[in-house]
Amino acid sequence: MKLERILWGIILLFVGAVLLLENFNVIEFYWRNVWGFWPVFLIIAGINILFNRNNSQLGNIISIVVVVITLSFLFYRGQQPPANQGWFGNNFRHDLDMNLDNDDENDDSNDDSTVKRMNFSEPFNGDSSKKVVLDISGGGTTFKLDGSTDSLITASVDHAKGNFTLKKESTDTVQNLTFKMQGNKGGWNVGHGANDVRFKLNRLPLWDIIIHMGAGEVDFDLSQYKIRTLRFDGGAVAVDFKVGDLLPISDVIVKTGVADVKIRIPEGAGCRITSKTGLSSKDFTGFTKLENGTYETPNYASSTKKIFISLDGGLSNFEVSRY
Questions:
Q1: Cα dihedral sign for 285, 287, 290, 296?
Q2: Is position 83 within any domain?
């Protein structure tokens, strides 16, 4: 068997074992703690190239040992609660509260790597007839929906490392909001608290929410919001969505790489799941399996409120439950 297949097999077994242990509440694993160590996989690839060329038994053993030691370290690191301080303690922390004007996108204070808190807000003009499209993007970030607001949207960023912007464009029928992380000139801090973003949304408008994320965590309780479409596209992520049934039809579309995805839906709503999940694990409690990766709740045909869920993942854990 080729060394490359052995190494990838070990990595896949590691990810699957961690997800399984998490599902059975044996461990509490903080994926955000290990994102910063991604360069170790470049080292593993380099070792693989070097020893594959020589095709030596000793080289194969060295490569396997390096992978096992690296994954053991990541396993230990991932179980440590996330720290909110840097490597040098609290003396180097700077807690700055900033009220940012959304129209001033070129404010140099956004580039200051010492900034720890940013606040954004867009007022609500009272017109709930317009649909609101919220497009969120970021990496190495924790996104959380933290209740409602009288404004259209508010966002606060703690432990900010990089530039964040909130832009608004409006037409006669749609308001487009774009919340974007634009990068970090100071570099990512390994072992430092991630960018923690907390949103508050107005409950009156009809919402389309789109989230693009490379790595991080998302926790959105949307049960009290009129969500027409929820679309998530992510890489290595942990996702928890709670969806309501305030509209006749809602669409939830999730595409992931290596992820732990939990979706909760109301018991009174009919739901259909279509899945293309490859090597992913699935737990759809209360659903009836049909064909071609399709699942439905027993009340799907009779319910006046329907939720359509589309899942697409390579190596992920998908869980859909009813509340």
A1: negative
A2: no
Smallest CA-to-CA distance from 218 within 165, 146, 168 is with: 146
Give the closest residue to 143 by CA, choosing from 189, 229, 201. 201
Considering the domain architecture, whether residues 169 and 293 belong to the same structural domain is answered as yes
Helix (H, G, I), strand (E, B) or coil at 202: coil
* 8 A C-beta contact, residue 307 and residue 271: yes
Kindly give the confidence (pLDDT) of every residue in the chain, 323 residues in length, as a single tens digit, with 9 standing for 90 and above: 566 677 777 877 888 888 788 777 778 887 777 777 777 767 776 766 666 555 667 777 877 888 888 888 888 888 887 654 443 334 333 333 334 444 444 444 444 445 568 999 999 999 888 999 999 998 878 999 999 999 999 999 987 677 899 999 999 999 999 999 876 444 433 334 458 999 999 999 999 999 999 888 999 999 999 999 999 999 888 899 999 999 999 999 999 988 889 999 999 999 999 998 766 788 999 999 998 889 999 999 999 999 999 999 877 889 999 99
What's the start-to-end Cα distance of the chain, in Å? 47
Say how far apart CA 279 and CA 172 lie, in whole Å. 45
Contact between 307 and 242 under an 8 Å Cβ cutoff? The reply is no
What span, in angstroms and rounded, lies between the C-alpha atoms of 112 and 115? Answer: 6
DSSP-derived letter for residue 99 is: B
CA distance 29 to 16: 13
Residue 59's alpha-carbon distances to 6, 64, 72, 124, in angstroms, are 13, 9, 20, 63
Q: Which residues, listed in sequence order, are joined to residue 321 by a DSSP beta bridge?
A: 264
What total number of domains does the chain contain? Answer: 2
* Residue 17 burial (CB count, 10 A): 13
Q: Is 74 helix (H, G, I), strand (E, B) or coil?
A: helix
Q: How many CA atoms lie within 13 A of 168 on its CB side?
A: 18
Range of 54's domain? 3-78
Among 52, 78, 104, the domain boundary falls at 78
